[in-house]
Amino acid sequence: MISKILRKNTSAAQMAGFVLSNFIGLVIVLGGMQFFLDARSIWSDSDSIINTDYLVINKKVTSAGLMSAGNTRFTEEEIARLGEQPWVRSIGRFTSNDYRVMARVEQGGRGMSTYMFFEAIPDEFVDVPRSQWAYQPGSDEVPIIMSKDYLTLYNFGFASSAGLPQMSEGLMSSIPLTLELSSEDGSRRRTVHGRVAGFSNRLNTILVPEAFMEATNREFGSQAGAPGAPDAGQGATRLIIDVSRPGDTAISAYLSEHDWEQAGDKSAAGAAFLLRVVVGIVLAIGTVITILSLLILLLSISLIMERNRAKLHSLLMLGYPAGMVARPYASLAVAVPAIALVLSVGSAIALRAWYITPLEGLGATPAGVWEMILTGVALAGIVCGVNLLTIRRRVRGAFR
Predict the structure, then answer these.
(1) Per-residue model confidence as pLDDT tens digits over 11-64
(2) Listed residue (386, 286, 287) closest to 336, CA to CA
(3) Beta strands in 250-308 (DSSP E)
(4) b/e 190-206 (16+ beta carbons within 10 angstroms → b)
(5) Any idea where the domains of the chain sit in the sequence?
């Protein structure tokens, strides 16, 4: 009887309007979020060694650079100015070996040897467990991170032409690698054993721990015995940067202005940044619509309660509990977001079924839908909570 009295001024058209406005906002938010989760794997790098937020940059080699390697080194002033950019979180320097390295691999009675090079970056930029990347000075074993491109070139280039067996990443990691380190004049030599700790598809180099590089440069470098690395103070030829916004146009503009270039696939970073911007705009629009629908619902419920203010006051004065009086409006405030949530989740899943096949054809790895559903439940819960608080305040106001 109380519900019939208090809902007298509520129409089905109003209910449908509330549900529709709430549904539009939620389906835009949830649909945009689910598309981002499904599509981001296309541009996200699967490299478990180097974070996707890291960029490797170097100076472009010009005709003058061919005559002097110093022209391609970063000065301390250039590194300092780079570190002041708002999109830079931290900067690491590549350090190269200042001695000769001969590597030998033997498998199945056949062997191969070649000259190679080493580079090192600060350990905080390498996402490898410390137990696998640690190096103790004087140790005969050194961990190595190798570019996946080198293994591909060996398997499909060198191995096929030389009659050598092809090797997988796991097999390559298990084969002992003998490294002979020697000074430029050959007067100092030492043999160590290399252990492949991982492969990277974002770094086109051979990485060793920074502690190993510093120790061996002091031992075999051109300035052996001098404190610090042999090339200390001369600058680095490559830098690794931890950026806050990968793919930001400000990064490419800064690099172009200084005639520097970024290593790796630049289009993927740009596409990922564009995806985040577009999805951010879509989510912002959906959020605005959701907030407006919440305000419309609150305003409508407030108007309905204002029209029934006399009835509310009479029921409260007759001794009816405030909870019982507020229940018709509370059920309305809960039913509208709940219905909108069910419709929006169903629509988002239907939209996902429409685009997921073409997205998989582009190489995407679809994400689950539970994150989207939980977000929808959270948003609907916030809407319900705000509505119930407003109704409680209005009922208490009617008692005065």
Answers:
(1) 667 667 777 877 888 888 888 888 888 877 665 555 555 666 788 888 877 655
(2) 386
(3) 260-262
(4) eebebebbbbbbbbebb
(5) 2-44+270-399, 54-264
Angle at 127 between CA 124 and CA 133, to 5 degrees: 80
pLDDT, one tens digit per residue, over 305-345 is: 666 555 555 555 555 655 565 666 677 777 878 888 899 88
Find the helix or strand (DSSP H, E) in which 297 lies.
helix 266-307
Question: Which pair of structure tokens corresponds to residue 171?
Answer: 């097999």
d(CA 118, CA 142): 11
Q: What are the pLDDT digits (tens) for 142-155?
A: 888 888 888 888 77
Helix axes 12-43, 322-361, angle to 10 degrees: 40
The model carries a pTM of: 0.59
CA dist 319 and 316 (Å) reads 5
E-strand stretches of 43-188: 54-59, 88-93, 95-96, 100-107, 110-116, 119-120, 141-147, 177-182
257, amino acid identity: E
Beta bridge partners of 238: 58
Half-sphere exposure of 273 (CA within 13 A, CB side): 17
Q: Among all chains, which residue has been given the structure tokens 């409006």?
A: 329
Residues 6+ apart with CB under 8 A from 313: 398, 399
